[in-house]
Amino acid sequence: MGLLFSALLIALAASTLGSISGIGGGVLMKPLFELFNIASVSTTSFLSGITVLSMAGYNTAKILSAKPSSLEMKPIFPLALGAATGGVIGSKLLELIKHFLSNSEKVGAVQAACLAVLCVGTIIYTLNNRKIQTRKISSGIVTAVIGLILGLLSSFLSIGGGPFNLAVLSYFFSMDTKHSVQSSLIIILFSQAFHLIDTLLCGNVPPFEPVMLLLMIGGGIGGAFFGSRIGKKLSNSTIDKLFIFILVLVIVVCIYNITKFI
Predict the structure, then answer these.
(1) How far apart are CA 211 and CA 224, in angstroms?
(2) What is the CA radius of gyration of the chain?
(3) Which DSSP state fits 131?
(4) What DSSP letter does each residue of 154-179 carry, written as one string?
(5) pLDDT band at 218 (very low <50, low <70, confident <90, very high)
(6) How many CB atoms lie within 10 A of CB 2?
(7) Which among 199, 134, 197, 127 is positioned nearest to 169, based on CA atoms?
(8) Statement: residue 1 has pLDDT above 70
(9) Using CA atoms, how far apart are residues 41 and 107, in angstroms rounded to an integer?
(10) How far apart are CA 37 and CA 170, in angstroms?
(11) Closest listed residue to residue 108, CA positions, set 152, 158, 153, 161
(12) Residue (of 152, 215, 233, 165) closest to 11 by Cα position
């Protein structure tokens, strides 16, 4: 019972913060699940993806139904299409590495190390983004490739999203923080949806408690509900500060998990 309650609290808190900042929530959920030994690496990855899919689905429905919508729709479709493809490729790459290493803890260490490095790079960009000349990509093909890379990374790292989404959207499409958050959540939805379909079709679903799955879905939707309301009241600068705080927390937890797995 204690583990179930802890899992629900982590899912709710991670989804709330992920909804506000656009990172999805899995980037917090996965390392925290591993930190508290709530489930195995494979089960954690699966449940994290389901939770983030629930959160992103709720948020995307809210974003697309808003009238009038301030979201820049032109790059969204190729980004989402690329993310969906990348989600499947990332899943295959992860399975290949699992087979090669034949040890789930080593896989967890590789994922944690990659995530920590990407978070450090994202923090450096975020702190200096006002000094950096951003771009405005208009090519649909280039946009789809960018989405593919984002989807691949989120799927491979099993975080259901990516802290690097916001940095990429800011640099390549000159989006401000709130538009980057909205676009990131839509990318996450497509990436996770296709990743889940691929997992089901390939029969790679790990063992899990049905009750925990229901709690994770509830936590994801609840986090999206609270996060969307809180996010509307926050300024871009406040969201940026929260974003950096989350990344620092993720790096600390990842470093701990690397030492634990090794």
Answers:
(1) 20
(2) 17
(3) G
(4) HHHTTSSS-THHHHHHHHHH---HHH
(5) very high
(6) 7
(7) 134
(8) no
(9) 8
(10) 35
(11) 158
(12) 215
Matching residue, tokens 């509830």: 218
- As a whole number of angstroms, the distance between CA 167 and CA 36 comes to 29
Q: Residue 122 in contact with residue 163, Cβ under 8 Å?
A: yes
Helix (H, G, I), strand (E, B) or coil at 132: coil
Which tokens in the block code for residue 161?
């999203």
Percentage of the residues of the chain whose pLDDT score is greater than 70: 95
Give the N- to C-terminal CA distance of the chain in Å, as an integer: 29
Tokens coding 9? 């609290």
* Type of residue found at 35: L
Contact 87, 195 (CB under 8 A): yes
Place of tokens 């946009």: 143
Which pair of structure tokens corresponds to residue 229?
Answer: 């309301």
Whether the Cβ atoms of residue 24 and residue 186 lie closer than 8 Å to each other:
no
In one-letter notation, the amino acid at residue 174 is S
Per-residue tokens: 143: 């946009």
Supply 238's token pair. Answer: 């406040």
Average pLDDT in the chain:
84
Q: Using alpha carbons, select from 84, 86, 24, 23 the residue that is nearest to residue 50.
A: 24
Would you state the structure tokens that stand for residue 115, as one six-digit string?
């995530």
Name the pLDDT band for 105 (thresholds 50, 70, 90): confident
* Residue 236 near residue 176, CB atoms below 8 Å: yes
Asked if residue 47 lies in contact with residue 183, where contact means CB atoms within 8 angstroms, the answer is no
